[in-house]
Amino acid sequence: xxxxxxxxxxxxxxxxxxxxxxxxxxxxxxxxxxxGMLYAVPVGATIANGxxxxxxxxxxxxxxxxxxxxxxQNIGKIFRSTAGPGFAGICEERRxxxxxxxxxxxxxxxxxxxxxxxxxxxxAADAVRATYAPEKPNVDPHLAADxxxxxxxxxxxxxxxLDSQRGDPDAAFGSAPVKLDYTYVTPFETHNPLEPxxxxxxxxxxxxxxxxxxxxxxxxxxxxSQMFGLPNENVRVITKFVGSGFGSKLWPWTVCPLAAAAARxxxxxxxxxxxxxxxxxxxxxxxxxxxxVRLGATPEGKLVSLQHDYIYxxxxxxAHHEDCGEATPFQYSVPNLRVSFGRARRNIGGGADxxxxxxxxxxxxTESAMNELARQLxxxxxxxxxxxxxxxxxxxGIPFSSRHLVECFQLGSExxxxxxxxxxxxSMQRDGLTLGWGxxxxxxxxxxxxxxxxxxxxxxxxxxxxxxxxxIGTGTYTILAQxxxxxxGVPLEKVEVELGxxxxxxxxxxxxxxATASVVNAVLSAADQAIGSLKTAxxxxxxSPFVNHSPGDLAFENGLLFLKADGAANGVPFADLLRRAxxxxxxGSGNSPATFGNPKPKFSTHSFGxxxxxxxxxxxxxxxxxxxxxxxxxxxxIINPLAGRNQIQGAVVMGIGMALLEHTSYDPQNGAxxxxxxxxxxxxxxxxAPPVEVHFLDFPDKELNEVGARGIGEIGLTGIAAAITDAVxxxxxxxxxxxxxRIEDLLA
Amino acid sequence: MRTFxxxxxxNAAAAVTTAAQAKTAQQGADVKFLAGGTTLIDLMKLEVETxxxxxxxxxxxxxxxxxxxxxxxxxxxxxxxxxxxxxxxVQRDYSxxxxxxxxxxxxxxxxxATTAGNLLQRTRCMYxxxxxxxxxxxxxxxxxxxxxxxxRMLAILGTSEHCIATNPSDMCVALAAxxxxxxxxxxxxxxxxxxxxxxxxxxxxxxxxxxLEPGDLITHVTLPPPIAGSKQVYLKLxxxxxxxxxxASTAVVLSATGGKVTKACIAFGGVGTKPWRSHDAEAALTGxxxxxxxxxxxAEAALRGAKPQTENKFKIELAKRCLTHALKMASxx
Lengths: 748, 333
What we know:
Chain A is an alpha+beta fold.
């Protein structure tokens, strides 16, 4: 197509909403104000296990400016919600707030103070006095699987604990000439997006509008309509901008129905914004995992068996599944394999998807095991992986749609300078520092969720594209603008993008790195339909130069409509045509069906990649820093490489935090997440972020969509911790199998 | 945050008179001075401190750094940390102080935080900062859950069975090594307190952190004349590269002649319940050759009395390495 040179797809494109963000015009959830709006502050339990025996709200209710103290006796009816088809009705904590007097985790909401000002609401929340019958909480970090049947219930339905099996893994491991058997532990982590969870509920008669910092407005509508017994169309959810979520805002938490119930009771809009400490309590965390990995291999490095048996924590109520073994069946070729899991209940809040759920802890374990096997066999870890590169997805027995992991390894090795590696521990030096080099592979799901979009071509030459998905800071506004611009020829600056509103066509969750892949075909087909409408108008409307032709005679390129016979040189801009035809606009809508959850896929669709990491080590002061990273990603066609590199770099920096810094500590006595502030929950800061060189391979994956784009939000965080911990071993000689690697681990 | 009365006195005498009405100048004081607010406002939001009255001292005339005739530097109480760190005389003669300040907090916080405020910086112990938790420092007699709980960041020197909270200041560690003195104006007149005597060990009264009494207003910090030819190093070790409190830090002011140490002033941060001057390390070093073996001996001496908790035994070795390396840096500077 001649449009190829002009298409914005595949070109570095600054965020279309950037000027709105830096000028402060962009409205985040707590920027919306309403006449008469009240402020609410939740009261969190200060025990992690037990019962509330008395709740004294008297002092709080008497405070001037307090409008209500909600609790179990007065909150009114809130129903449970249940998961429906697709991603509808999903939430990780199904118990409606205040349903009973049982406290199952520290910080569980037990009351809500509603007042004229935030300050009054906070003071009133602090004045609520709870008396408890406490019991010893169980927050034990050492995990043993609970006694559960072979099939258990998870958030997404029943799941066999024997997740994948082929061959005879136990026998093959038993007779393998080379064996490795280690357990890897990843800690509780807390998402900590900069913008805390924020909800404003506005009732108008029987309709509820919720302004929410959400990664999935359509699902949230479904949950709320069930919880309040409303027709779906009576609930509207609006999320214009999100100060990131990392998965903590993917599924609704109890703060949403609390705000709606409060607004229902007081008859005024009510806003709740969580404080940082509450971000550690009832809005999710990455579960702690304990993963035993056994590898059997030949002396030449061919895998003969792989057993990945893992346990993770979950709350007393809920069933988030931390799918650590998701990539294990297909990452490498191995004839005998088992993936199984168990769960351990703890007195903690609900676990949740956190950027790269399952695979991030899972690939840390299996990629670490591969690195340890490479050491044991004295084989280069890159070579070991290439030896075990599979031809097909051996878990499902189907081909990959597109897998170029070996090319990733090769390019990464070259860009990093891997051939200069001396594998001996502590052997490499630079500027008086000991260097450590490590690498690991990575992968992430490539899939689509159901997506719908609409497009309007308007008589002023602009285009509007809309979908009820949301931009969580990752660049979705820009992706939709690029897609619409590419198909309609309308320049980017004349494309208006509307997202984050359930009154728009139903769009996908911003989760699982699938939003981009999901919307491509929906937007392009909406554009095609709008162009079709334009052609129909062109041949049928008085005033049009194309009257009396048939639509099939017409072509549309770069915003021009023309007779195929005449060529684009004689084309008419669509805005001219609309004006001549006295039309304000033409509409188009498009859909793209889900591939996620397809029980019989023809292809295994995943993105792949690898990381090469360098650390510096100063044993004299036990100082370890990550000094550079090279990451290569095979994620199909990258629609916006500028935003794409940004996603991978951000994920790698988060991976440095995962490898070396981040962990949530639960106090052993009272079960509180004790380091619940940004001063005590240590994430990587700018000074910890080294140069991160990102390379994308460019193999469009047309199984996913017309452009061949997959998602890139999470893959950068998979594998990086294993690359860093192997670099740590190379530098220090210390093998740490429990994250994060801390100074005390290295102070041998 | 609770409501409070805010006042801005015209002069120091008025500030002292008002503050003298307080029941205590320690934890839980009903009247408090407000300078940069980087600690106090934070603690008021957490309701760890709930003063009824705040006396704003920011406009009192204590915002200058003056050279003392005959040597030394007089630093006003409300001089901002960033101004102090970048002052030419500080960078020239007391570089350990500049290094220490710049190793702490962030540029934004240093622009607000003051000299006197930093002297009174409160512990970062997570139990102290959470009013839902027992804490002997905040609520005497309620217990210390840190001793059996999360204590990785907490102290190994100067602890008691009632409190193991670390003094978090970087600046104070340098001031300890520089043997600063603190000028206080109180209801009974002015007095001077050596920094070594200013902070208290927790003992049975962890709620008492300094010798200050109601009405005592810090007006200046004075540095003695610089030690000609001394080498000064502040070394801070922590998990991440910036914006974190120390696991262990050390301030070293080292003088050597002919390869032998003639005078050493050594203090630690991140490991003590107060800024931790180590006369033991100094004694082990003075008169000895400035070499690695003696540096390590000094470090061993400094940590001899260390008492680790369940999670922070590593701090003993970390502090030793910190001092050994800081001395090496100073001796080769």
